[in-house]
Recover the amino acids of this structure.
DNA sequence: TTTGAAAATAGCAACCG
DNA sequence: CGGTTGCTATTTTCAAA
C-alpha cells in the first residue's frame, strides 16, 4: 500500500466530499476506474487516517435552530486551555472547538434555537466556565460557502 | 408527509451524522425500524431541505496541508460584503465563508500547506481584495471537536 | 488493477394496521 | 396514511487472474 495519494485518490475524494453517499460504482464510473479499485483506495485512505469519516450536512435553521454564533475566547492563563476545553465540550450546543493562537486562545462555534436560548446558553454555560477571562462573539448572518480544498493538481 | 421531524427522524440523523456511509439496513436495525422506513424518512428530510447532503471528514494535515487559519475581516463599508465574498470564493484555499455581525463583517476559514504558502496566499489573494479594511487572524493549533448538536429529546 | 461471482443492500410495490 | 414485508435490481466484497 502506497502512502502517498495520487490523482485517482484525489479524484475519489473530490467526488465523495461532494456527496459522501454516492455509491462506489458511480464513483468508479466517473473516475474511469473499476468499483473494486474505489473500495480499495477508500480502505487505504481510511487506514491512513486521511479520511476520518463521513457526515451529513444539515440545515439547522430548517430544524428550528436559527442562530449560529462564533465565540473567540481569551483565557485568564494560556495554560488553562485544557480544562476550559473540557468544560466547553460538555455543552451540547457547542459544535466546534479549536485551540488557537493569535487573537484568541480558544475559538468555538455554537448553535442556538433563538436569541433567548443563546443568551441563556451564553450566560449560564459559557461565561460560568472557570478560567475564561473574556469572550468576543459574532453571529453568522449567512453561511456563503462550506467546501473542501480542491485536490485537482 | 409530515413536516415536523419526530423522534425516529432524529435517531436517523444522529446515526448518519456520525457515519453518513452507514448502510440503511444497519441504520434501521439500530433505530428499531424497517429499512424501507429509513429510505422514506431520508427522502422526506432531503426534500424538506433539512439534509443538504453528505461529505467526508478529512484530516488535512495527513494530506500535507498543515495550517488551518481563521480570518476575521473588517470591510471599508459594510455594504461591500457581497463583492468581497465573491472575491473570497475565488480563492480555492478558502473553505468556509460567513457573512457575520458583531466583531467582524466577514469570517472565513482557510487551509494552507505551510507558513510560506499561507503568507503568500494571505498577501496575494486576501489582502489585495478591494473593500477589505483590515484582517485579524488566528491559527488553529488543534481541532478538539467537530460534531453536531444532539437531536435526542 | 480488473474481472467475475456470491452475498448484501437499495429501492420500490403491494399489503397491513 | 405511514409502516412493514417481500421482491428485484443494484451494489458491495472478495478471490483469482
Amino acid at each position: 500500500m502506497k502512502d502517498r495519494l495520487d490523482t485517482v485518490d484525489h479524484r475519489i475524494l473530490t467526488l465523495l466530499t461532494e456527496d459522501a453517499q454516492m455509491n462506489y460504482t458511480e464513483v468508479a464510473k466517473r473516475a474511469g476506474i473499476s468499483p473494486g479499485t474505489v473500495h480499495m483506495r477508500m480502505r487505504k485512505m481510511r487506514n491512513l487516517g486521511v479520511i476520518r469519516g463521513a457526515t451529513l450536512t444539515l440545515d439547522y435553521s430548517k430544524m428550528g435552530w436559527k442562530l449560529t454564533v462564533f465565540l473567540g475566547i481569551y483565557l485568564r492563563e494560556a495554560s488553562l486551555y485544557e480544562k476550559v476545553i473540557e468544560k466547553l465540550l460538555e455543552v451540547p450546543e457547542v459544535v466546534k472547538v479549536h485551540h488557537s493562537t493569535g487573537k484568541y486562545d480558544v475559538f468555538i462555534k455554537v448553535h442556538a434555537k433563538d436569541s433567548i436560548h443563546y443568551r441563556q446558553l451564553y450566560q449560564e454555560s459559557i461565561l460560568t466556565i472557570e478560567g475564561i477571562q473574556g469572550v468576543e462573539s459574532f453571529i453568522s448572518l449567512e453561511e456563503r460557502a462550506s467546501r473542501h480544498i480542491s485536490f485537482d493538481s
